[in-house]
Design goal:
Order of helices and strands: EEEEEEEEEEE
Strand content: over 45%
Largest sheet: 7 strands, mixed
Oligomer: single chain
Number of strands: 11
Number of helices: 0
Helix content: under 10%
Shape: globular
Radius of gyration: 13 Å
Amino acid sequence: QVQLVESGGGLVQPGGSLRLSCAASGINFSLYAMRWYRQAPGNERELVASITRGGTTNYADSVKGRFTISRDNAKNTVYLQMNNLKPEDTAVYYCNAQLLSLYWGQGTQVTVSS
């Protein structure tokens, strides 16, 4: 059974930092491209960052220079380091894993507010 479990969300003040984790099980993690998406109320789900199995990364323009995606294949985990958070970063953050199939986690809430 494939599981992706996100953690690390919470409430943070503007300018603060959070690190999200997504732990995968039931897949050969090192073969999968991993992505972080987010969805704010009333908005469509949007791609935030991605990392290929070779380690190539890409970011949405809105988070470039503030967010960093990384992976630890030994721990079957992908991370999203989020710095200088802004209120507009408030959303539920989801990870997904894609090879031939696509899997999603359940999401973790990030709220940026003073």
